[in-house]
Design brief:
With 177 residues, this protein is an alpha+beta fold. The protein contains five helices and seven strands; from the N terminus they run ββααβββαβαβα.
């Protein structure tokens, strides 16, 4: 069994600047609709599948990510933000706006590989934090692998501070092993 290093980031949402997240044209940033769960699941799965930082645990982790994506669509108003290009959803972030959970960024910002490097992940991340603040949270948490792109470049933004963490799915895996 491989021991993984995880970080849990924390953001003080009260300190998050009030500026708006703008996505450049021709992209559209919006809340997901109930019938878009499958499209979001596809984007999230593909984003993780194409990221070499996750390839060694892809099979184990994809079930966690799919479960998190489904949970974001459990209510009438999905806890999910998407970016679309034309009629295609090309980026998504499923959040959990309930207080007291270990991870509010259920999937983290996920951008299809061919759309990366355009600042869309940062816009999606910023919008996710803003949505959590608007849902009444004063702080938010996000979990990522220690040496992932998210941990190194994205999650430290907007005041994110990381500390070592063992997620629930890692604890369960160790108990089974």
């Amino acid at each position: 069994m491989t021991t993984l290093s995880w970080l849990r980031f924390k953001w003080d949402l009260r300190a998050l600047p009030a500026e708006e997240s703008n996505v450049p044209p021709p992209f559209i940033l919006r809340g997901a609709e109930k019938g878009e769960r499958d499209a979001v699941e596809t984007v999230v799965s593909n984003a993780f599948g194409m990221d070499t930082g996750w390839s060694d645990i892809q099979r184990m982790f994809v079930t966690v990510i799919v479960r998190n994506a489904h949970a974001g669509f459990a209510s009438d108003r999905p806890d999910c933000i998407v970016i679309q290009h034309g009629h295609r959803i090309i980026a998504a972030s499923v959040v959990n706006s309930q207080d007291g959970v270990e991870n509010h960024l259920s999937t983290g910002p996920c951008v299809l590989h061919e759309y990366r490097g355009r600042g869309l992940g940062t816009v999606l991340f910023r919008t996710s934090l803003t949505a959590l603040r608007e849902a009444g949270l004063s702080q938010a948490y996000g979990i990522s692998r220690e040496k992932s792109t998210a941990s190194r470049f994205l999650y430290p933004r907007f005041g994110g501070e990381g500390s070592r963490w063992t997620p629930d799915f890692e604890v369960a895996q160790r108990i089974v092993a």
